[in-house]
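Below: protein 1.
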Amino acid sequence: MSLNEKVSAERLHIAFFGLRNAGKSSVVNAITNQSLSVVSEVKGTTTDPVKKAMELLPIGPVVIIDTAGIDDEGELGELRIEKTRKILNKTDIAILVIDASKGKQQEDSNLIEDFKKRNIPYIVAFNKCDLITENKKLNENEIYVSAKENININELKELIGKLSNLEKEEKTLLGDIINSGDTVVLVTPIDSSAPKGRLILPQQQTIRELLDIGATVVVTKDSELKETLSKFKNQPRLVITDSQAFKRVNEIVPANIALTSFSILFARYKGELWGAVSGADKLDELQDGDYVLISEGCTHHRQCGDIGTEKLPNWIKNYTKKDINFDFTSGSDFPEDLKKYKLIIHCGACMLTEREMKTRISLSNEQQIPISNYGIIIAKINGILERATAPLRK
């Protein structure tokens, strides 16, 4: 992935919902001016969610998601509905497509209630308006369209654009900490788990933002960090390390130089940093037989020495001296029922949308299960949590 390409997790996610044969896929194709979804008169043509990262004018970079009908039937239908409902966790703007000739059904009303409960901005698009003779007065977030006759498609895009402007919030990894002219050192260990020939997404995103700020970025391996720092005439403003190297980097970086990790930066960027810091205190309360959930947002191939499934569990056991049970999830898998766990430890969520990560945090909070973050837990285990979070305290 190039540094100037906006990753899916940073794009606005616009999802289309509705009953089978309401014309969701036709509306998606009309809005995007592409054949993203298969269109058929046969009910249930769309089975799994269809996703496409693209530029959608006048909105900009987005991910368009077409979902299966919320009224699907049978055993497979239930699985499709479950997948559709999971899309709600990452939806920034919802488009409910209703067959105008049939009107709003109970399932449509249920979806609207779900949108409201989750605080998802939504639009109701009454499709197939060419089949009706009378247009009723609509609310400001409702619109008559016809994908077949291309009626009000541009107007629907303008409505989406208005909501997207409301959703946009200027967020930054480092913009409130680093100034133009500052020097920042990034420590990126290259070991067996590092992807060959490229940097991982948090490193890429951090580099790009620092360059946009006007900072000087120096990238080095942990094995060369000491020599790198010795070459500075003026000390760097901040050192950011991969959390796995926290212990070694902390020993090398002088106490008067600020230190944090990519994972901790993303805990603030995508989630709730200080809630995650509080969650780390649960480590000191764990007992034999307790269950801990370790969750990653990506689905990379697990290797020997994997941080989530091997290193973290071993570090936690060594720290607590307790016989802890661990469960692991990755990608979109995240349990609805969390009551068996005493603690949840999540990755930095660079591959998840902010809404999806905050949905997981809300679910944990509702069930009163502490949730923390890889980098925060590793910093606590190494006794440097105060130092590692100090640059982010205001």
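Below: protein 2.
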Amino acid sequence: MSRTKTSGDQGEALAGRYLEERGYTILDRQWRCRFGELDIVAQSPGGVLCFVEVKRRGPGSIGLPREFVDGRKRERLRRAASLYMGFHELDCPARFDVAEIYEEKGGGLWVEYLEDAFA
């Protein structure tokens, strides 16, 4: 397994724990389709379906993790989310969130969570 994959999986696991601690229910992880992957699909305590894109950056990285969810990535996520909702026959409010995972120089990780990061 590549270092990048392992690092990404650690970030997604941390984001999942972060959500569960706040009352979210994780419905899917790493859901794949022809448009790409949905990192985490969760239901908020208020019943909103959340498509969570997880972005991890190490110490000294240039730019914020959210900046790497560019227009092309957002469009792929929109299409994947639409397919997910159709596949599961869901008709409910939904939003796109970004979980930014930051790595400290000592190796510790922390989450900055952005609700409704884009439409």
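The mean pLDDT is 91.
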